[in-house]
Amino acid sequence: MEQQADILKHILSNVIQGRVSQEDEGVDEGLVGQPAVTERIRHAVELGIPPREIIIKALSPAMERVGENFENGEYLIPDMLAAAECVEKAMDILKPHLSPADIKEKGKFVLATVQGDLHDIGKNIAGLMIKSEGYQVIDLGHDVVSDAIIQKIKETGAAFVGLSALLTTTMRAMAEVVEKISDAGIRDQVTIFIGGAPTSQEFADQIGADVYCRDAFHAIQKLREFE
Q: Which intervals hold domain B12-binding (predicted)?
C-alpha cells in the first residue's frame, strides 16, 4: 500500500509539473496517462489523509517551488498559471472534506486591474495564489473604474485591495483609487497592494499604497506578513 508520504510527494510533484489530470503533459516528457493532481487528491481523500496535511505538506510547498522556479527564470507565466490551476482544482476537491477550523477564511481581498488597462494575467495569477492562501478573493476584472472598487470595499468590508496595471498610462488610475479610498473615510480599514510591470516601490510610496509586489509570489510573501 502506498504510504502517505509518497502520496503527498506525488501531489507536490504534479503541481510543480502543472498537471491537473492524467491527460496533461506537464513540464517533463512521458507523463501523459499517469495520475495527476485531481486523481492523486481523490486517492488521498479516499485513504483518509487529512486535507490540512495535503495543503500544508503538498500544495503549499509545491507553489513555493514554482515561485522559486519563476524567480530564477526556469518557469514562465504559463507554467505558473498551470500550477495555480492545479491548486485551485485540488482545493475544489478538498473543500467538502475540510473541517470548519480548516476553512476559516483569513479575510477578504478585492482585486482589480485599474481603469483603462485590459491586461489581467498577472492579476489572475495573484488571485489564484491569494485564494489558495485561504482568503476570499473578490475579482472585479479589468478596466475597473475607481468608484466600483471603492463600492466593493465598502460592501464586503474587505481588509485588502490589490490594484494591477501593465501600462504606464494607467498607473495614474492607481493613484486615483488610493486617493478616493482616503476620501471615502476607509483608508484605515484597508491595506493597499499594487503591482504590474511599470510599478515600483518608489511609485507605491509616492501614491500612498502600502505594499508593492513585483509578482504574484512576492504578493503572497508580503501578505503573510499580515497574518
A: 106-227
CA distance 200 to 134: 27
Nearest to 165 by CA among 226, 225, 207: 207
Q: Which residue has the higher pLDDT, 83 or 148?
A: 148
All cell numbers assigned to 159: 481588509
pTM equals: 0.74
Q: What does residue 215 show for φ and ψ, rounded to 5 degrees?
A: -165, 180
Cα 145 to Cα 45, 151, 156, distances in angstroms:
43, 10, 17
Q: Report whether pLDDT(142) > 90.
A: yes
Radius of gyration of the chain (CA): 19
* DSSP reduced 3-state for 206: helix
Right CATH number for 108-225 from 3.20.20.70, 1.25.40.10, 3.30.200.20, 3.40.50.280?
Answer: 3.40.50.280
Tally the C-alpha atoms within 13 A of residue 24's C-alpha that lie toward its C-beta.
Answer: 21
